[in-house]
C-alpha cells in the first residue's frame, strides 16, 4: 500500500500562532510563509526589500483568508538592521522563528556592512544575532521553535574554524561552510535549550534540490517557471520550492516534530520527496566544533547568547 503524501492540510489549525520568516518575500521563504498562513497563522516576513515583501504579502493574502501577514525590514548583512528588527519583533509572542534568508553564491569575495565575508556574515552571523536578540521573546512563548535552514551542501565540506572569513575563496565551498555553520548552530542551540530546561526547541530543515522553475506559478514572486519540457527533465532529480518548503513547515509547526530533528526530502540523496526526518552528516552535530563556533560568533558580533 502506498503511503499518502504529506500535505500542510494535515497540520492542526495555526490560528493564534505567530511565525517570523526571514527572506519570506521569495523562494523557499515565500512558500513557507504562504503555507503557514493558509493554516491560519500570523506570518511576519522579515526581508531586506520592502517592495518585494509587499508583493509577497499581497500574493499570500489572496490565498490565505484565515491568516494574516505583515513585514519587518531586515538586512542580515547589517547588524544594525538586525538590532532594529529585533526591537520591532520583540513586542509580541513568537511561536516559530524560521531562519531561511541567505545568499547562495557570490562570484567574488565580498563583505557585509560590518566587514564579515558576505555569505558567512549573512547566512550565519546575521541569524545568530537575530536569534540572540529574540531569545527572550521565544523563551516567553511556551513551546516555541527555531528552525534553521540547512543544505545538502554541508555533505561536501568540513568547517575550517581558522578560515571562517574565506580568505582562500571558493564560492561553493564558502556557501557550503556557511550552511554547515547554520546547522551546527541549530543542533547546538537545541542541546543548550534542553540543558537549561526550556520548552523552546531548535530544529534544522533542508529543501533538497529545490528550484523556482519547478514551483507552482506565483506571478511577481521569484523566477518564472521553466517550460514543460525543461520541467519534465528537471523533475527527475529536483523539485519545486513549494515542495522544498514542506520540510521547513513540518519542522516549524508539525506536532510530531521534535527538537534536534533534521527534516528533509525522503527521496534519493535527499534531493526530492516527502518531508521526513533525515540524517545529517556527523560533522553537523559535532559538539566541540559547534561550541567553538558559538564562541567565535559571540566574539565577532559582540553578542551574547546565553540560555
From TrEMBL:
Keyword field: Oxidoreductase
InterPro entries: NAD(P)-bd_dom_sf, SDR_fam
Keyword Oxidoreductase appears in the UniProt entry: yes
Name of the protein: Short-chain dehydrogenase
GO terms of molecular function: oxidoreductase activity
